[in-house]
Amino acid sequence: MRAWVLLSAVLWYLTGVGWQRNSERTEKGFIYGKPGHPVKLYVKLHHNSPILVCMDLKCAEKETVDPTYLWVGPNEKPLTGNNKINITKTGKLMVKDFLEPLSGLYTCTLSYKTVQAETQEEKVVKQRYDFMIFVNPFAPGWKGKCNESVDCQDNTNHNILQARNRIEEFFRSQAYIFNHNFNNTLPAMHFVDHSFQIVRIDSCHPGFGKNEGLHSNCATCCVVCGPGTFSPDVDVTCQTCVSIQIYGAKSCP
């Protein structure tokens, strides 16, 4: 996120969040995999992930015989449905109330049968799909929340700019009053238009950072620090710590 410094007050400016570019997303919001290409997604804290489909769009357009789906989570163990993980019979996955420790690689293997037309011989085909899910304080969908909370970019920016304009108008009006209503008994006050400025300060929550190389499709996002890194304060860089094996670490043991 970015902060605006307005005189002595610090007002937060919430940046928007990049969306996945390597995935194929349908109008229903389903995220399909791409064979051989991990799909990166950025999910807002305490929100549900998009619905991930264990299939690519090309495969979805044709009929599959006796399909089965196996999802494996970041801990490299098979996923089963619970209060956090929702898996449908058709291989769709959604992670509920997303938190930092849920970040990582989600893999699904699709298995289905094909039948040779000439020999009627059955063959089992397997295809793997990888989804890299990262948590972000602000992710796709924040605009729809503006009516429910001021904790989003447009409302925050509007309030900050409104505050700047009001402070600027205050100085302008005071200069006019001092120069016209006190009969030169007080020192003159001059205000130069557009001389009042606001300054951006780049920062992220502890446990988050920015990495343009790793997250090129979300370069301005504050993304959860991965294993081997941590961020103890509001800096934008995740520092190296080889002993860390979790996401979102705030200290190095």
TrEMBL record:
Signal sequence, renumbered to the chain? 1-19
> The organism sits in which domain of life?
Eukaryota
- Broad class of where this protein is predominantly found: cytoplasm
One annotated GO biological process: acrosome assembly
Give all residue intervals belonging to the Zona-pellucida-binding protein 1/2 N-terminal domain.
Answer: 38-134
> What keywords were assigned to this record?
Cytoplasmic vesicle, Glycoprotein, Secreted, Signal
Residue span(s) of domain Zona-pellucida-binding protein 1/2 C-terminal: 204-253
Pfam families assigned? EGF_Sp38_C (PF20626), Sp38 (PF07354)
This protein's record includes keyword Zinc-finger: no
**Compartments reported by the entry:** Cytoplasmic vesicle, Secretory vesicle, Acrosome; Secreted
What is any one of the record's Gene Ontology cellular component terms? extracellular region
Q: Record's family? A: Belongs to the zona pellucida-binding protein Sp38 family.
Q: What is this protein called?
A: Zona pellucida binding protein 2
Output the lineage of the source organism. Answer: Eukaryota, Metazoa, Chordata, Craniata, Vertebrata
What is the gene name?
ZPBP2
